[in-house]
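#struct-pred

JT: dropping the chains for the assembly here, can someone run the whole complex?
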Amino acid sequence: MVTETGQARRPTSFDVAKKAGVSRATVSHILNGQGSRFPEETRNRVLNAASELKYQPSPAGRALVTGRSDVIVVVMPNTTFGSNLQDLVDEVTRLAGLHGLSVVVRFAGRDPAETLAAVMNFRPVAVVNFGGLSRDDQTTLAASGAATIPSAARDEDASGKDPNFLIGQRMAEELLRDGPRPLVFAALLDERTDPFGPARYAGLKAVTDARGLPQPARIEVPLDIVGATLAVDTVSVEGASIGVACYNDHVAIAVLAAGRTLGLATPEDLAVIGVDATEVGQLVSPRLTTIALDNSVLMRKIAADLEAVTKHKAPIQTQDAGREFLTVIQGETS
Amino acid sequence: MVTETGQARRPTSFDVAKKAGVSRATVSHILNGQGSRFPEETRNRVLNAASELKYQPSPAGRALVTGRSDVIVVVMPNTTFGSNLQDLVDEVTRLAGLHGLSVVVRFAGRDPAETLAAVMNFRPVAVVNFGGLSRDDQTTLAASGAATIPSAARDEDASGKDPNFLIGQRMAEELLRDGPRPLVFAALLDERTDPFGPARYAGLKAVTDARGLPQPARIEVPLDIVGATLAVDTVSVEGASIGVACYNDHVAIAVLAAGRTLGLATPEDLAVIGVDATEVGQLVSPRLTTIALDNSVLMRKIAADLEAVTKHKAPIQTQDAGREFLTVIQGETS
DNA sequence: CCCCGAACGTATCACGTGTCAAAATCTTTT
DNA sequence: AAAAGATTTTGACACGTGATACGTTCGGGG
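RK: done, full complex below.
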């Protein structure tokens, strides 16, 4: 029953076995690392046959028998996707490739349950969570056999602090550098759909509390001039100066635009700080003061976790304990 | 051989069959639309059993037997990923969900062959190409049974023109609105890795040719102030005015920043136009003149193609023939 | 009464793989 | 030379599904 029409059938492990003159089981063993038990001569025969046939194991076949697909799902918040996260994804893809894994990117949609279901449907070997999966989701995932990476970096780093809390703290310190002033937290979105906002706000608040200042206000700043102006107008006080800690650089740019419209001088009346150190933020005038996040630390953590997961070992303790993962880029807006 | 430890086994179609008191084959038939042959009573019994057990067919099992996974791969250029594309991906995800398909996002990496291999490895039912897959890649994909979507929108729309060519034309027309001036095309990247650049440049050139102007220069503008200034300095002429058509809004912002550094007045000495109508572009000062792309047209095309693919019918001819898919947003930079 | 077709349901194969237990072969020891 | 051990190889099963082709039942027409 040969199908004359249509695309050529991909070679299977059976084809490799036939060409190498061994059984399919032998091929499978050798191609999956258990090959040390075989004499070099046999191993080479199989390896050569496989590469000559350009044999690629069927993902479906593997997934069916192992109950797990060779896939890593990267879950991203559907908030602005800066080049920051882009680079991170590229790097994860590269790393995963080293372990023979494919990477799938999934944006966390409006419905968290749907996102979780979609992720679980892939039966991934691991899930890289850049935001969008709650802690509950992670335990559900763990129960289904998929490790969440970075193992806890989004919740607490080596020093036991949530990185986003630290970001909030640093933003507050920077905004209060030249003396006390009321602080405002400028979010982009509804709090429920913002994975990082609450922790950052907490960081801000920790600083104002410590210094006996009133607790920061919170506004939602849409990325258009009219909406942003309205939002900023809510918190700007006649003749007084305020410091606005923004969700990211884009929000900061919106706040600055609003300030221009409202005739506020920067940084005197309106000090602004962003997060992400976007390229655009350094190209606008005035140049943005912003927080640069050191992805390399996070990336090393991810790499280590990934290594651990694929090797079925416990996550390695990273050595980045005291390392600063965030830097203030001093612009002209604070 | 019951595994006491570990997660609960997911229900299989066999479990559904048992609960409904029928055979597994019946379940398969009814759950795959071939159920019209069965009396309503049986059908309901199976359907209820399936929903009570929260039965989800195993993707691996399906993929193995059908030779195709219920997946749509969205290939994105690894250039800046604006909210533009983000929305598009969200919409594709929603649409695919309606057909019971999952969406996988893949960024086109440095190595096109590797990207293609990764995409083919998923054996997707269709591939949505937002840039990064060459025409050759598409035919390879087609040979493997995966349709490329939008079927030809990236190459020619209903009027037979490449959209990117049209974008180039419009940019030129806008920049030459107030009289002739030398034009420059500001790319972000190396031309080989830029999926849209060449066609846009061709659009520019078509206009300058038609008007008897010198052909546009081409510069690569990195997104930092020093690099951008160097690049712009290359093409700025003492006392004369130039018009710069940019790859996207971010590049336009970089060109503007360079112009400020070089002491060029905008739009008199340096007119700039971007593409994408980014939110940030409308928040900076001066407000960017830019080209807004109407995703709804592209999206309808994708939706139609998707429908066609899942229904195994030929792509429907969309009715958007004469519709403008791009709009100039008049800012303060041209 | 017999046969037939329609209606309904199911046994069975095929997909490609990983792995266990057992078989086959080779090597060493008694 | 036979037994015991070590090394190398393989047969066979399981994974969960879609679909083809085949059975079974039942009512009715010849």
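JT: nice. The two ends of chain A are 75 Å apart (CA to CA). The first strand of chain A starts at residue 71 and ends at 76.
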